[in-house]
Design a protein that fits this description.
Layout lengths: L8 H7 L1 E4 L14 E4 L1 H8 L3 E6 L2 E6 L40
Antiparallel strand pairs: 1-2, 3-4
């Protein structure tokens, strides 16, 4: 949802994580409407608060957390993971599989 990277359906279960938008411990549910598919690295960034996912202006967007600027997301080979602040998420075309805005 954040990087736009897609895995073949038969491989996605082992390569992508189902990430909660609101943790179950904070009152979120395990329903598909409280989640997005993320790469493991981006999932850890979300869980640690380095990035957030918010519903703004009718779209789900990434937001940088306060400590995001301290990260160096450049790999040893020069590749770089780019997560833009306020970038819209890539979501499944089927609305039944998309997250819904969270109450409160």
């Amino acid at each position: 949802a954040v990087t736009g990277w897609q895995a073949p359906v038969e491989l996605s279960g082992g390569l992508l994580d189902a990430a909660h938008l609101r943790s179950v411990a904070s009152g979120g549910s395990d329903h598909v409407h409280n989640g997005v598919a993320l790469t493991p690295t981006v999932h850890r960034l979300l869980d640690s608060g380095l990035i957030r996912v918010t519903f703004e202006e009718g779209r789900w967007r990434t937001r940088h957390g306060p400590e995001f600027g301290r990260l160096d997301l450049t790999g040893s080979g020069g590749s770089r993971l780019v997560i833009e602040d306020r970038a819209p998420l890539w979501l499944p075309p089927d609305p039944r599989l998309q997250p819904r805005p969270l109450p409160g």
